[in-house]
Amino acid sequence: MSWHELELLARGGTLSLLALWSWLLWRDHRTMLAARLAIAMNLGIACYVIITVSWAAQLDEPSLVLALLARSTPALFWLFARTWFNDRTRLARTDLLIVALWIANAALLHFTHATQPPVFFISAIMFRIGMLLFGLAGLWEAWRGREGDLIEGRRRLRLGVVVAVGLYVLTIGFAEMAVYNAHAPAAIIAVIGSSTVVITLATCAAMFALRPSDLFGAPVAAAAAPTQRPDRDDPLALRLTRFMETDMPHRDERLTIAALAQRLGEQEYRLRRVINGSLGHRNFAQFLNAYRLAEVKAALADPAQREVPILTIALDAGFGSLGPFNRAFREAEHMTPSEFRAQAA
To answer: CA neighbours within 13 Å on the CB side: how many for 326?
Structure first.
C-alpha cells in the first residue's frame, strides 16, 4: 500500500470519527452552547482534513465555504474552551466580534491569493499570528480555571485534551509558516493532516469517558443558587451554606476554594464534592458569584442605596472589576444592572 493510500485512509478515519462524535454531541447535548461549539469545531477540522489533501497542488482550488470553515477552526477552538471550561451559556459580543474579524480576514486571504500579492501578504501574516494567538488563548482558558473546576473528571481531562488540541493548532500554524514562508517541503502539511486521526480518537475517547452530566451538564442558575437549600443529611453542606450567609467570604475577590476549605477547617476535596454534588455548581467562580449577585440585587432594589454607584456596589460584593460583573449579571438576569435598578424602582 502506498503512502498516498495510507494518507487517504487516515483522513477517512478522521472524518468518520468526527462525524460520530458530532452526532453523539447533537443527540445528547444539542441544547448546550459548548456542545454546539464543539460540533462547529469538528466541522472546521473536517474541512481542514479535506482541503489539505494534496495541498501543494490544490491550494487555490477549494471552495470558499470549505476554506472559511477550515480556517475558522482556531477561533472555534478558543470559543469552545472559553465556553466549556467556564460553563458559559452565552457568547459575549466582543467574542463574536473577534471571530467575525477573523473570518473576514480569512475571506480576504482567499480572494487575494492570486490577484493582490501585497494585500495577501499582510492578510497571511495576520492570519498566522491570529492562529497562534487563538491556540495560546485556548490553552490559557484551560490553565487559568483549573483550580476552580468542580467537575473532577473534567478537571483531570481539561489540560490533557485542550493541550493536545491546542498544541495541534499551534503545530499547524508553525508548519504552514514553514511551508509557505520558508519553502519547507509541502509534505509536512500532508503528514499533519493524516495524523489528525490520532488526536481525534484520543480526544473522543477522553471526553466520552466522562459521565454525560459531567461532560455538558447545565450549570445552576446563578440568581437562584443562594436560595437552594442543601439536604439536611449533609452536615458539611449545611455548615457551608450557613458560613456563606453569615461570614460573607464571597466579598473577598481573591478567595480560592483552598482558602475557603482552610477557613472551614475541611479538606479541599470534600468541599469540592459538596459544592458540586449537594449544591449543584460546576465551578467555584459561579458558586461565589451566586452570593455576590444576590447581594448586588438586594442593594440595587434598596431605595436607601439608590444614589450609590453600581460599580461601588459590585466591588463591595466581591467582584474585582466592572467587566466580569456586567457579564455575570447579564447572564443571570438577562438585563443590565441599570435596567434591573430601574425596574426595582
So the answer is: 10
Cβ–Cβ < 8 Å for 158, 142? yes
Q: Report pLDDT digits (tens) over 311-344.
A: 999 999 999 888 889 888 988 888 899 999 988 7
Dump pLDDT digits (tens) for 141-194: 888 878 888 887 788 777 776 667 667 777 777 777 777 666 677 667 666 666
Q: What is d(CA 335, CA 329) in angstroms, rounded to the nearest whole number? A: 7
| Domains by residue range for the chain, with CATH | 3-216 (1.20.1070.10), 225-344 (1.10.10.60)
Residue type, 55: W
What angle (nearest 5°) sits at the alpha carbon of residue 82, between those of residues 332 and 237?
A: 55
Please work out, in degrees rounded to the nearest 5, the angle formed at the alpha carbon of residue 201 by the alpha carbons of 199 and 203.
Answer: 65
User: Which residue pairs from 30-39 have beta carbons closer than 8 angstroms and sit at least 24 positions apart in sequence?
Assistant: 32/216, 32/218, 33/83, 33/88, 33/89, 33/90, 33/91, 34/80, 34/83, 34/84, 34/87, 34/88, 34/216, 35/216, 37/76, 37/79, 37/80, 37/83, 37/84, 38/80, 38/84
Element counts in the chain: helices (H) and strands (E): 17, 0
pTM of the complete model:
0.77
Which residues are within 8 A (CB) of 209 and not within 5 positions of it... i.e. 6 or more apart?
153, 157
Between the CA of residue 311 and those of 74, 154, 217, 267, 342, what are the distances in Å? 35, 34, 32, 35, 16
